[in-house]
Design a protein that fits this description.
This protein is an all-beta fold and 223 residues long. The protein has strands at 6-10, 16-21, 23-28, 33-42, 49-58, 65-75, 81-85, 97-99, 105-112, 115-122, 127-129, 136-142, 148-155, 159-166, 171-176, 186-187, 192-195, 198-202, 210-211. It has a 5-stranded antiparallel beta sheet, with no helix packed on it. A 4-stranded antiparallel beta sheet has the order 8-9-10-11, with no helix packed on it. A 4-stranded antiparallel beta sheet has the order 12-13-14-15, with no helix packed on it. The radius of gyration is 20 Å and the shape is globular.
């Protein structure tokens, strides 16, 4: 479970078995300023968790970076680390990792000098697909069943785009964000993409992407 300042791990009996502190810490000495931060999260069902630890050192005036390092860690039962990744980084207004409903499939945001890449992985750390690079990744989400994903990215001063992924078929479709009302979308477990109440795009099962004309699109089915 994720708490305000820690991740708590429980054993099968419900007893607390491990705890990882979350937060930001800073110290200094005559030569440098050192900062360390740890953020974290857990899957909806509580089977898996992650932390992102960032370390950085600057000169005393904080005008020059001396060293920096990031490490994402993925945990399973009892807080046992399953795998780690040093290229991961948090999105500007989000996390570095998002889970499917069962936690067995996740998206990991990777950042390098070439841009951002999204690594689709199993809970064991196996990479299924790594679309990218994207100049600036803004958001990413995965459907509850772990089959489809939505990436929102932009090229500064040029364009904003949405990329939709069918993870199982390894196919994708890119559309300008201007096609979506206020740039907002949602995708369901059937691979249907909506903007407001309008169906904009669909991934037919077992086939490649198919664009739907917004002017004749249908409304969201009522439950």
């Amino acid at each position: 479970r994720r708490q305000a300042s820690s991740l708590l791990f429980y054993d099968p009996s419900g007893a607390l078995s491990a705890e990882i502190g979350l937060g930001r810490w800073e110290d200094s000495d005559p030569a440098r300023v050192n900062a360390r931060s740890i953020t974290g999260g857990a899957s909806l069902d509580g089977r898996f968790a992650w932390t992102l630890e960032s370390r950085a050192s600057w000169n005393t005036l904080k005008t020059k970076t001396i060293a920096s390092q990031r490490t994402l860690r993925f945990y399973g039962a009892g807080g046992r680390e399953i795998w780690s990744e040093e290229g991961a980084d948090a999105l500007p207004d989000g996390d570095p990792l998002v889970f499917s409903a069962d936690g067995e499939t996740c998206l990991v945001a990777l950042r390098s000098a070439e841009g951002w890449t999204v690594s689709v992985r199993t809970y064991l750390g196996n990479a299924l697909w790594e679309p990218g690079p994207f100049p600036r990744l803004e958001a990413m989400s995965i459907t509850p069943n772990g089959r489809y994903a939505t990436l929102r990215w932009n090229e500064p001063e040029k364009r904003a785009m949405h990329t939709f992924l069918d993870i199982t078929a390894k196919t994708k479709k890119e559309l300008p964000s201007t096609q979506f009302f206020l740039g907002q979308t949602r995708m369901d477990d059937a691979g249907l993409v909506y903007s407001g109440k309008k169906l904009v795009f669909a991934f037919p099962a077992g086939k490649g992407p198919e664009t739907v004309d917004i002017s004749t699109s249908t409304e969201v089915p009522k439950p």
